[in-house]
Write a structure and sequence with these properties.
The chain is an all-alpha fold and 207 residues long. The protein has one domain. Helix content is 85%, strand content 0%. It is built from six helices and no strands. The protein is elongated. 23% of the residues are buried.
């Protein structure tokens, strides 16, 4: 008997390592920001601004790499689902492009994994599969909560009102922390999505 080797598990590990490292970099950036605020002085602020400029330059590259890995993982994940579940008849290409295409993927990511969640409802007699489906729902909700917060923070950042100097500086500081927090939340949500769906593949492959 030939054992099926799920394609998505290894890609999922690489993707989650990338997400984890990105989250770690954001936390390190937040700590550096706190340090520059605590120390004060032109030199500390200048060093922080140089670091921020470098980070802003690097962000598009990181996004492209993570999107590519996520799309590749979604494709292989749907391949695994088609091989491990007899009644799951969704095309892997659709999952890949739903995750890969910018703007459309705001809807496409939810659609891709909601299909799996809805499919798992058929297995309500299997407590383990039901629990995994609940984990997916929580992960997807976490991702979209973070993404919604990111959109709000971007809108707020564009419309920060001018005012007294101290009030404006405090508003900018709060906004910067909020921006980093929602970005972390979004990445963590996708990290949970990959982990929960990988658990489903492992469980199904071993049963």
């Amino acid at each position: 008997m030939t054992t099926y080797e799920p394609r998505s598990l290894q890609i999922g590990k690489i993707l989650n390592i990338g997400l984890f490292l990105t989250m770690g970099a954001i936390l390190a950036f937040a700590v550096r920001y706190i340090w520059s605020l605590a120390v004060g002085g032109e030199e500390a602020i200048l060093q922080y601004l140089m670091l921020k400029s470098f980070a802003v330059t690097l962000i598009p590259f990181v996004i492209v790499v993570l999107l590519f890995l996520a799309a590749l993982w979604a494709y292989s994940y749907y391949v695994d689902l088609n091989n491990l579940f007899d009644r799951f008849e969704k095309h892997p290409n659709e999952a890949m492009f739903s995750v890969l295409i910018p703007v459309f993927n705001i809807y496409g990511i939810g659609r891709t994994f909601s299909r799996v969640i809805n499919f798992l409802d058929r297995y309500d007699d299997d407590d383990d599969v039901y629990a995994l489906g609940m984990q997916m729902k929580i992960a997807l909700a976490t991702f979209y909560a973070g993404f919604g917060g990111a959109l709000i923070s971007i809108l707020f950042g564009i419309t920060i009102p001018s005012g007294p100097d101290m009030v404006w500086k405090a508003t900018v500081i709060v906004f910067n922390f909020a921006e980093m927090a929602v970005l972390l939340f979004t990445l963590f949500g996708f990290f949970l999505i990959v982990r929960a769906n990988s658990r489903l593949i492992r469980y199904r492959n071993s049963s």
